[in-house]
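Lab notes, practical 5.
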Amino acid sequence: MGGLFIRSVVLADAPAPDEYPFNLPVVVGLRAAGHMELAPGVTFLIGDNGSGKSTLVEAIAVAAGFNAEGGSRSFRFSTRATESSLGEHLTLRRSPGRERTSYFLRAESFYNVATEIEELEKTKAGLLNSYGGKSLHERSHGESFLDLLNHRFGPRGLYLLDEPEAALSVRGQLAALRRIHDLVAAGSQFLIATHSPILLSLPDARIIAIDGRGQLEQVDYDESEPVALTRNFLDNPARSLRWLLSDDD
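Output from the prediction step:
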């Protein structure tokens, strides 16, 4: 049974939806619904580019006490402040009891996190052991992601991940899927923004889709857009390419 450390996310006292980030579809949907329930184990957020899923994951991370660029709650570096003010308007409803460990992973700023880990190692020898014992910069982006999952993440953890598939091959995504499954079985909870049909196949996960109008809807795996579009393409690539590359308007 997966962990349930954060039960729901509530939007409170938010400005009118006429400016960023309050005009993003996911924030419009969250305002209309009043709150978003998270599942024990894994909750996936899916939506097209610009839907705001990554912005919401970042805001939840900030509301939960994480550094906006990623890392554990003890990380307090800032390379360039780009986070939105959304986190200031979120309330996290928690279950009794606390997670044993936690981490926020942003694919786009993981390089900065890796650099901070190297700097911290100079004053806190042994920190790299939690990341496989070797500088994350000495491995490929995908390898360092998997090292993070395998060495830093542990049982009864709370993990917020923004598009973790960004640096992973298909084989790497399969390895990540297995590791997430094992961590959920050990009592961990994940909130993951993703476009990956492979990760979305995780059994018993909740998939929340964000459409362009801001509606938040729980969908089944086969109904999710990343799965449906990928399956349609792979079923008949030639047909899909004829349509995509046609000169007809």
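Observations recorded by the TA: DSSP finds eight helices and nine strands in the chain. Helices lie at 25-33, 53-63, 110-123, 141-152, 170-185, 197-200, 225-235, 237-244.
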